[in-house]
Amino acid sequence: MPKTWKYDLDIAKYARQIEEDPANFRAYKERGNAYFRKRDFERAIADYNRAIELKPDYFLAYNNRGNVYMQTTRYEFAIADYDRAIELKPENGMPYNNRGFAFLLMGDLIRAEADIRKSLDLNPANIYALNSMAEICAAKGDASGSCKWLRMAIEKGYNNWSYIMTSPTYDAVRASDCFIEIMRDRRPPGVPPARQRHTTRRPGH
């Protein structure tokens, strides 16, 4: 079970900031992030909603609310929020990657790949987009392509091994020699290759 005490401390801290300044839209967004990490998704959405009410052009609140919707499989709502985030900051690659991942989970690999490649055009070192490309290749059954992109992500710092080991997005390539080699070389000692179904993405900043 994840430790929630740190999230509770963050929630209390931002609640105090909100009490001192009810118009502090950033504090609402930050508290929403803490609720997201605690997996209290409806409270996270409520705080992102309030941040947007206070600042309708707040790019990060749309992006992060989209992450909650994606985590709770409300993909159409997630895509609408990512659309708005892209409209507000088209030079930022983060919502392109997130929208692409939503399309991937919906099985729309063409739009997924277009968005992920756009994210990489904007930021070639985006480790999350590199990992997403690996997942797209996995969904196509392209083990060598998936391993190539995954190695690139790892080389640039991607290290969410729990996600790699358990995410269903990699299921189609788990038995491939190259994937087994990556996991043998990189899996932390003592961590079993158990599977569970999740699609956790990090909120923005």
* Overall pLDDT level: 91
Helix content: 55-70%
Helical/strand content category: mainly alpha
> Per the principal axes of the C-alpha atoms, what is the gross shape?
globular
Which regions have little confidence, pLDDT < 50, spanning 5+ residues? 193-200
N-end to C-end Cα span = 25 Å
How many separate helices?
Answer: 11
Largest sheet report: none
The number of E-state strands comes to: 0
Please give the radius of gyration in angstroms.
18 Å
Written as H for each helix and E for each strand, in order along the chain, the element string is: HHHHHHHHHHH
Relative strand content: under 5%
Describe what you observe in this structure.
- There is one protein chain.
- By secondary structure, the chain is mainly α.
- Helix content is 68%, strand content 0%.
- It is globular.
- The model is unreliable at 193-200 (pLDDT under 50).
Could you give the topology of this structure?
Layout: H1 5-20, H2 25-38, H3 41-54, H4 59-71, H5 75-88, H6 94-106, H7 109-122, H8 127-139, H9 143-155, H10 161-166, H11 177-186
